[in-house]
Amino acid sequence: MIQQTLVLIKPDGVQRGLIGEIIKRFEQRGLKIIAMKMCRVERSLAEKHYTEDISKKHGKEVREYLLDYITSGPVIALAIQGSDAVRIVRKIVGSTYPGEADIGTIRGDFAHVSKEYAKKKNQGKNLVHASETEEDAKKELALWFSVDEIHDYKLAVEEHIL
User: Fold this and answer.
1) Is 129 part of the annotated catalytic residue set?
2) How far is CA 136 from CA 15, 51, 121, 131, in A?
3) Closest CA to 66 of 57, 54, 79
4) Which of 10, 92, 150, 155 has a CA between 20 and 30 Å from the CA of residue 131?
């Protein structure tokens, strides 16, 4: 099933010069970038993205950390499309927790395990966000992109992979 999903290259990924490497991982897997932009995230957008549900699930401290982190520098927002895109993208990205991410995933290869991680199970600077479910992807894409910012086109390889 063809799906669309959101990926955010967070400020640490941008600041460390990993934009191209991260995008390359998705393209090499045959996924299609259908929208992309660099932006500084306003607190209001960050609060819509990281909802109060995070506070309920992980605590207010974690949500505050995420809000501060995502607004600390420029972010690259990507809309990615492909067969089973939500699951495939999550697999490419790796575990949310850098210390648990498998080698070969974006987080396993590039994320740093922070000092906070050693103290408690903290996400640390994990480079990217990827929508968890298809429902989350639809909500998140609508937050980050207008309909006219998403583009449909054919990749040359699509006849071989679809």
Assistant:
1) yes
2) 26, 12, 23, 6
3) 54
4) 155
In this predicted model, what pLDDT tens digit does every residue of 8-59 receive, in sequence order? 999 999 999 999 999 999 999 999 999 999 999 999 999 999 999 888 888 8
Residues 25 and 92 sit within 8 Å (Cβ to Cβ): yes
Q: Which of 49, 129, 151, 160 is catalytic?
A: 129
Three-state SS string across the chain, please? CEEEEEEEECHHHHHCCCHHHHHHHHHHCCCEEEEEEEEECCHHHHHHHCCHHHHHHHCHHHHHHHHHHHCCCEEEEEEEEEECHHHHHHHHHCCCCHHHCCECEHHHHHCECCHHHHHCCCCCECCEEECCCHHHHHHHHHHHCCHHHCCCCCCCCHHHHC
Distance, in Å, from the CA atom of 99 to the CA atom of 146, rounded to the nearest integer, reads 35
Where along the chain do its domains lie? 2-146
Global pTM exceeds 0.90: yes
